[in-house]
Design a protein that fits this description.
single chain, Nucleotidyltransferase, domain 5, disordered C terminus, binds zinc ion
Length: 445
């Protein structure tokens, strides 16, 4: 049977499948392995000096290059490469070596190998060192391929962002540096701030530091049209971030993350429990104290508890809360949870008044402090309730950032770290976008 085909390549070139090249020879080596000799399909090339295209061969050279695994192992690839005579008589460069997409100027490994290396690091999240070992490349060659991929990422100003998330993370341990002149030690906290598109979780930028100046500098460096499009910015309860946003994005509304507010309420309950343990027993809590034994139960949302767990909670308050202070603190925490779950601003105001009554009744320094925080952040809480924009995707992005850090066992060069974060996040959000376009409603706009 004769099968219709569009291919005009010979069998060896088809199997080796190197774009723009054909196989001219292939042999089994005496000590194992194979050697494949290839040559470019098109002879002519433009002179790098004058740009004039020429196909007059001056001489032929053989160059050994690195390639991906073809079949069971990586063959020895030898490129039969012409040195071309420049067709322009006035050009100072008399001859030049042929360059192709797969073998650019001075390259010693094929482009498809560099692409495979960058793909392994970016898409699979593997360490540069490990990928270099697996593909027979130097660490720098793999890192160079990753850096080159970062250069072609779309500019932040071209991305349409309506809801922005800002969060911080520490990218390595605290270090101390000694001033050689004065001999004094300076503590350096290597923090970085990440900017995330809340709609799709893509990391837009990473800057050194977590202060107002660093955040405001990144925001003001953006295009005015980009800044005008940002409607809501989600942050943790951080006054430095709030100040930066009010300076650089005056028209944007700020939404505070509910997770961190509930975390503050949980911290308040824990502090009250610890103070009461000291006051009632004169020591830290132990397994003998029901409040200590059920310390995690105290922090869980009442609406998520089973009947048995609710009964255990009641028994704890009965057994280990003679002054009713612990139950009062717990009540304030639960009321804050109800407030944050309000469907609209009117309901939130009513819940806030109720929270005020709870705080007055509890009358403890810890609960007053929480009430003060809620009041300071009240406009941002109302934005949260009205828009529902949280920092959840920013936190998720930070989790994958930490995975990158752990895979690389830490980073010394912040530029390499930044490139890895941006590339991996762009790849993941593109993949997520593909899934969401198939089924659900989320749009990365
Ligand atoms: Zn020339």
């Amino acid at each position: 049977m004769i099968e219709a085909t569009c291919s005009r390549r010979d069998a060896a070139s088809l199997i080796f499948d190197l774009p723009g090249y054909h196989v001219i020879d292939a042999v089994d080596l005496p000590c194992g392995g194979r050697r494949v000799k290839v040559s470019a399909d098109v002879l002519e090339d433009g002179c790098p000096g004058c740009g004039v295209v020429s196909s007059r061969v001056h001489s032929w050279t053989q160059q050994r290059v690195k390639d991906i695994t073809v079949g069971r192992d990586r063959p020895v690839v030898v490129v039969h490469k012409p040195r071309v005579v420049c067709a322009e008589a006035a050009c100072g460069r008399k001859t030049f070596a042929q360059r192709t997409d797969q073998l650019p100027f001075r390259a010693r490994c094929l482009t498809r190998l560099r692409e495979a290396a960058a793909e392994a690091v970016i898409a699979s999240g593997r360490a540069v060192d490990e990928v270099g070992d697996a593909l027979g490349l130097a660490w720098w060659t793999v890192q160079d391929a990753v850096n080159a991929a970062a250069v072609v990422l779309p500019a932040v100003d071209d991305l349409r962002v309506h809801h922005l998330g800002i969060d911080e993370h520490r990218y390595r341990r605290v270090r101390f540096f000694r001033d050689p002149q004065t001999g004094s030690w300076t503590r350096v906290e290597p923090w970085m701030t990440t900017f995330v598109n809340v709609a799709c979780g893509q990391v837009l930028g990473v800057v050194d530091g977590r202060d107002t100046a660093a955040v405001a500098a990144w925001l003001t460096a953006r295009d005015p049209a980009w800044r005008a499009r940002v409607q809501v910015v989600a942050i943790d309860p951080s006054t430095t971030f709030r100040k930066a946003i009010t300076t650089a994005l005056p028209q944007a509304r700020i939404s505070v993350d509910p997770f961190h507010l509930i975390q503050l309420a949980n911290l308040m309950v824990t502090r009250v429990r610890q103070r009461l343990a000291q006051a009632n027993h004169g020591r830290r809590g132990t397994t003998a104290d029901p409040a200590w034994a059920h310390r995690l139960l105290l922090l869980r949302g009442y609406d998520t508890l089973t009947e048995r767990a609710r009964a255990r909670l009641q028994a704890t308050f009965k057994a280990d809360d003679p002054t009713h202070e612990l139950s009062a603190a717990w009540g304030v925490k639960e009321q804050l949870r109800r407030l944050l779950a309000s469907p609209n601003a009117t309901a939130a105001e009513a819940e806030r008044n109720r929270l005020g009554c709870f705080v007055i009744a509890a009358d403890m320094p810890e609960t007053w402090r929480l009430w003060h925080t809620v009041n300071i952040w009240w406009p941002q809480i109302l934005t949260l309730i009205a828009t529902g924009v949280t920092n959840a995707r920013t936190e998720a992005a930070n989790t994958s950032v930490k995975q990158i850090k752990r895979t690389g066992r830490g980073y010394r060069n912040p530029e390499h770290y930044r490139a890895r974060i941006l590339l991996r996040s762009a790849r993941r959000s593109r993949r997520r976008q593909r899934f969401t376009q198939q089924g659900t409603t989320l749009n990365c706009e």
